[in-house]
Specification:
Layout lengths: L9 H10 L7 H22 L10 H14 L6 H4 L1 H13 L3 E2 L1 E7 L2 E7 L7 E7 L18 E3 L11 E7 L5 E8 L3
Parallel strand pairs: 1-7
Antiparallel strand pairs: 2-3, 4-5, 4-6, 6-7
């Protein structure tokens, strides 16, 4: 069966059919199982509040298999009740990786870029920054130590040209990311 670009990957379809002990080839059965997979992926991502990777052996894939098993048995009404602990774990794992937002406002000055960040850092926390293009926010608790691609920042102007991104990260005493935000230097 070739990849069509829509629906679940063929390898995932075959793995779930094997899990469900579906050993025969039938287009109608394949379409039904693809529907289970598509709906299961959407529901699990909705519960997690984020995009999930179902191609690796981990909790999202395991829950998708069980979602399909319940759908195939026409018992979806009890899936979430029976897997409440696992679904809560999925949500908490996913949300722990999402970093709180800082609002970063930039304005140009003769000596560099002036940044205003809200909210204020928590007690004992400080800021670091990076300048570049297409900068990615760190995940919560990623280490962002000054000197490892990060520069300590205490509110002074930041040297950066127009059109560059400035990413500011609030870090705790262990240099772990707490909140982050970025903005583009105005022209």
């Amino acid at each position: 069966m070739a990849e069509t670009g829509t629906g679940p990957p063929d390898a995932l379809l075959e793995a779930i059919k094997d899990y469900l002990s579906i050993t025969w080839q039938d287009d109608k059965t394949d379409a039904r199982v693809k529907g289970y997979i598509d709906r299961g992926m959407k529901r699990l991502q909705n519960i997690a509040g984020a995009s999930l990777d179902f191609t690796v052996e981990d909790l999202p894939r395991s829950l998708l298999y069980d979602y399909c098993r319940y759908a195939n048995s026409q018992a979806l009404e009890v899936f979430e009740k029976n897997f409440q602990a696992e679904l809560t774990d999925l949500y908490l794992r996913t949300q722990a990786a999402i970093i709180d937002d800082l609002t970063v406002q930039l304005s140009a000055s003769d000596s560099g870029v002036v940044a205003k960040v809200t909210p204020m850092p928590d007690s004992g926390d400080s800021y670091v920054y990076a300048v570049g293009a297409e900068l990615e926010l760190p995940e919560q608790m990623d280490v962002c130590a000054p000197g490892s691609g990060w520069t300590a920042w205490n509110g002074e102007t930041i040297p950066a040209g127009a059109g560059r991104e400035i990413l500011i990260v609030e870090i705790n005493e262990g240099f772990q990311a707490v909140r982050a935000g970025k903005a583009v230097v105005p022209e």
